[in-house]
Amino acid sequence: MAKEYVFCVLKFLLLLLQLVFLIHEADSASVVKFLPGFEGPLPFELETGYIGVGEEEEVQLFYYFIKSERNPKEDPLLLWLSGGPGCSSISGLLFENGPLTMKLDVYNGTLPSLLSTTYSWTKISSIIFLDQPVGTGFSYSRTSLDNKPSDSGEAKRIHEFLQKWLGKHQEFTSNPFYAAGDSYSGMIVPALVQEISRGNYQCCNPPINLQGYMLGNPVTEHNGVNYRIPYAHGMAFISDELYESLKRVCKGEYANVDSRNTECLKLLEEYNKCTDRITLFIIQYPLCETETPNCYIYRYLLSTYWANDKTVRKALQINEESIGEWIRCYRDIPYNHDIVSSVPYHKNNSISGYRSLIFSGDHDMAVPYLGTQAWIRSLNYSIVDDWRPWMIKDQIAGKVGTRQSINQRKALSCSKGGSMANLCRRVN
Amino acid sequence: MAKEYVFCVLKFLLLLLQLVFLIHEADSASVVKFLPGFEGPLPFELETGYIGVGEEEEVQLFYYFIKSERNPKEDPLLLWLSGGPGCSSISGLLFENGPLTMKLDVYNGTLPSLLSTTYSWTKISSIIFLDQPVGTGFSYSRTSLDNKPSDSGEAKRIHEFLQKWLGKHQEFTSNPFYAAGDSYSGMIVPALVQEISRGNYQCCNPPINLQGYMLGNPVTEHNGVNYRIPYAHGMAFISDELYESLKRVCKGEYANVDSRNTECLKLLEEYNKCTDRITLFIIQYPLCETETPNCYIYRYLLSTYWANDKTVRKALQINEESIGEWIRCYRDIPYNHDIVSSVPYHKNNSISGYRSLIFSGDHDMAVPYLGTQAWIRSLNYSIVDDWRPWMIKDQIAGKVGTRQSINQRKALSCSKGGSMANLCRRVN
């Protein structure tokens, strides 16, 4: 009996220890002063860590947090989500608006190098780059999940993440907060904004100082891909004849074609032949092999070598036991696409008074600006500022048009850019 | 009396000597083995010279002749004309399809360097790069001209030039001959082809072995600029709203607007604001200062330094006494635009059995592919080959569509290219 009692107490203590260990594992946060591949100390403040969400904190979401290089006490706090779903937030950090980028050297088997950028948004705002949904980048689950992640589920989880993150970083609770991202996060961010907004009116959690949101070439409606064909026509990828036939035969529906409409399918094959050798998200580049150093997507290969290096993962404080290979974009991630359109969320958020900035690089055929323009038009806001060139250093970087409700919704496009935000700044 | 007689004889001899001197001066031709700025002997055969045309050979046309690097005895002989009117044929030689190009170093006051190219058309054909009309590049007139050069006059002069040139290079009379060029030469080449064709049926001069002609982004009709606006719309430079208003208010006429149509003029101002900061002939580049080394047109400045260098002009055997400053494009050249449309010439040449290849880079807004497509369509040839990607090394270089009469007229477009032929090959 005494033995049993001692055993029972020991078991209880063990469980308690495991729990403490797990909680420690769960909510880690480390300041990273050096990163392998980058020479010298980092010229900005980087913290990486996990936040556990879900009933038992079984979902461990990994983030990179970079403090504003200007005035972190007053500058906005931004959450940046990458698309996919399933693309690591490193995509934002290294290839879009972050303070680091890959050095595009030919890979020689050693660790790829990182460089500082001059255009980072962290010059004026603090940014949380978040790996979500679970299974993306370095995020993982401690148990097998009952339900696949979904658009609406992610909005809830990210909200929970933010509450917990702010709970642990209370010095940022008063900073103006913005949700942001590109591509598929166009399905998440508007729902997240609504979720945060609702949460702010509910009991017991401190409110998030939400001001608005920002989206670049956002996926907004599942029929958005129908705009690829008019876009390809405008950009001279297909002939007038093919375009006219497609419109007539497929009646504007190019994504979900009735299998009996063989004429339409045949025309779509013709269309594919004309476009299947270009990089969809940045049309000025030809499709090429990831392994080819002068190929645009070679940088992605380098980032994979970098993120899978043991010294890098140690520096980032990755939980090695829980994470297998790092994949930049996990395309087959289990996922439930349960939001059909973000437009109702945009409407609600606008009515609720949140500001939004929607920008769209016009060299992106994955989420072409024509579709973005169409859904913004469907909101029927009045135009307060004409379409005009968007100048950077006296050179055209894109086109800006402003449509304004009482809440100043903006739409602009970056002519030099692809789908990824930072490309907008590439003027030369 | 005797004195007078002797004086008269002397005067006659002097005139004769002057005439001999002038003829010598007129029809010079020198083999150039070395060019300042290029290391080592030239890896191809270059001849430069003047041919005098006109009644008294008062018009001295300068040419660069480069022998085919393959089999000059059998390879085609090409005449290449640059546009403008008033642009030196060096534009073709150094920036389009020639075997040399400018090395894009920052100018340090010394002679700019030249490099070999890998894509030169001289690898498979001999090319005469001709400075025309008179006043262009190194071409000049020995007397003040009674009439300004004109489109139809140039067709005649160039024909005369060719006859004389072939008279002095009889080893090339049996080679297949093609006339070619880009931009404004679209107004000259079709008329020249008709002129040569007619001449071949007339007495006394040996016929020219004319096979066909080739044109890149050719100016064809003076209303061709009207296609710039639909093109700018397709390429996302102007908004749908502005485009619809322009169509409605200006009724498709954007070049010669009735000054009373103030609404149209206002819309055109809006259009200009959206497009006046891009390089018209290669829209992916922003407008920038010639003096800026990373500006696309900086190469033009280097070529001006090069062509005005004394050692270069000596090597090219330029008649220093007759030529002032070399200007790459003499925009204000006196000129009479007397051909309104090249379309009738295209029709005639096609009926006469000459082959033509019309290509059009779709990144050129100066002579947009839409206009070229429109006039080719107006010829009502049947389509024998669908619009399809034009592949170079398994990558899309442009789009090809073929329209064929009995004479195989072809139309294709280079997606990566601007108005200048060689740009079509820039895949990466």
UniProtKB/TrEMBL annotation, chains A, B:
Residues making up the signal peptide according to the UniProt record: 1-28
Keywords: Carboxypeptidase, Disulfide bond, Glycoprotein, Hydrolase, Protease, Secreted, Signal
Keyword Membrane: no
Membrane-crossing residue ranges in chain numbering: none
One GO cellular component term: extracellular region
Pfam families for the chain: Peptidase_S10 (PF00450)
GO biological processes: proteolysis; secondary metabolic process
Broad class of where this protein is predominantly found: secreted
InterPro entries: AB_hydrolase_fold, Peptidase_S10
Compartments in which it is found: Secreted
GO molecular function, one term: sinapoyltransferase activity
PANTHER family linked: SERINE CARBOXYPEPTIDASE-LIKE 1-RELATED, SERINE PROTEASE FAMILY S10 SERINE CARBOXYPEPTIDASE
Function (record text): Probable carboxypeptidase.
Family of the protein in this entry: Belongs to the peptidase S10 family.
Protein name: Serine carboxypeptidase-like 2 isoform X2
Lineage of the organism: Eukaryota, Viridiplantae, Streptophyta, Embryophyta, Tracheophyta
Gene name tied to this protein: LOC108814607
